[in-house]
Amino acid sequence: MTHAATSPIPVLKPGITITPYEQAAGETAPRFLLALGASYFLVSLNTRALVMALLHNPPTLVQLEEEFKAASGTHLPAAHLLKLAQQHLPSVLLRDTLIPPRELPFILSLTLLGPQLAARVTAHLTWLFKPYLAAILIATFILLHIVSLPAAMHLAHADWTAKESIALAVLFLLSGLIHELGHTTACRYFACPHGGIGVGLYYIFPAWYADVTNAWQLPRRQRAVVDLGGVYFQSIMLIAIDAYALASGNPLALKLVWLITFAMLFTLNPVFKFDGYWLLSDLSGLHNLHKKVSDATAALVATAMGRRSVSAPGVRSSILTAYSVLSLCYFVYFGLFLARELVALSTTMVPAVSARWQLLAAIDLTQGWEVTLAAGRLVAALAWPLMIALATVFFLNRLRRAVVGIIASIRDARMLPPLSKLV
To answer: N or C: which end of the chain has fewer CB within 10 A?
Structure first.
């Protein structure tokens, strides 16, 4: 009681808004979307009522209790409300805390289309999201892609010349810009404001990004359209490339078909936090999927050790189980893929790099164009091994974190009392 009497009542920043958040299938407890600037948080009914009470700036604990009861219809003692604020209120909402700058996962980043310019561009593209037109475009893409993809996959493993590598890199980067325009245009189609588009350096790889944070305000089906907007725009781009590749048999076009297809499938993979992850999250209503998988693993370990009873599976738990199995299968596949590539590179990389280095060293430095082409061939020979090396480091780090999480789950389960003592 002394703690409740002396603890200061939190004071919130102005400008906080709270709106209902669409419930997913199988979800019974209502949730609400709390927004402050570009920061969004999903909160429970009690946390919503607490925020609404605090926004009235109650000067005493008694008035805090009254404001909470008016917002929620239930009474909670002040000590409980202060503890609820300490545990569940994001610190960024408090008046005396600074709003941290938004951090991007890039070593370097550059905004190429600011919010205003990006908005002017997307305003001319929203017609592409009209349902009937979208259905026609998707059907056209599927038909053309089914025909062109086998030849594209056959050529993907053929030798890539230096000129082809440069051209494919430029066109592939262009497809990334079109991908981000798809996300922002989908936002604009649903009258949701969006930010700018830029490019960053992720490790050594250039990567595009678009600010569609405000899509949290949309219903989940519309958020799913925003999630798919990127691959939808790339599909439209591929209609033209597929048609040209089929008509001409151009090897560069076919290799570009394979490259963009690979990128689209990779971004739809739900294991990493790409478009597929957010699509699954939005459609299922399950957020923080990686943490939920860890929690589910801990619960499974506790159940196996007799520290927890088995609960009846629901729709959401079934989705989580399927996601966990999918993640495990993908993780194993990715590990085997890296192992095969490392074994192959151990026998082919050194001769290939050595041959291209010797070719570069033998060229007269005054022959600028020949030197450039030879250097391009050397870089092309090093690009794939470097990508595999970085992917291996990333994979091993994720594996380490997973093992640490499992060990922690086992340790926590051992600390729980046996199930018979919990009854």
So the answer is: C
Q: Please state, in angstroms and as integers, the Cα–Cα distance from residue 356 to each residue in 92, 163, 362, 371, 373, following that order.
A: 54, 15, 10, 11, 10
Nearest-angstrom CA–CA distance, 364 and 367: 6
DSSP class of 126: G
Give the separation between CA 254 and CA 248, rounded to whole angstroms. Answer: 10
CA 156 distance to own-chain centroid: 27
Q: Where are the domains of the chain?
A: 2-93, 108-283, 289-422
C-alpha separations of 105 from 39, 112, 197, 203 in Å: 17, 17, 15, 9
- In tens, the pLDDT along 72-91 reads 889 999 899 999 888 888 88
130-162 burial, b if ≥16 CB within 10 A, otherwise e?
eeeeeeebeeebeebbeebbebbeebeeeebeb
H helices of 90-161, in order, are 115-123, 131-156
Reduced to 3 states (helix: H, G, I; strand: E, B; else coil), residue 125 is coil
Interatomic CA distance for residues 163 and 168, integer angstroms? 8
Instruction: List pLDDT tens digits, range 348-363.
Output: 776 766 766 666 666 6
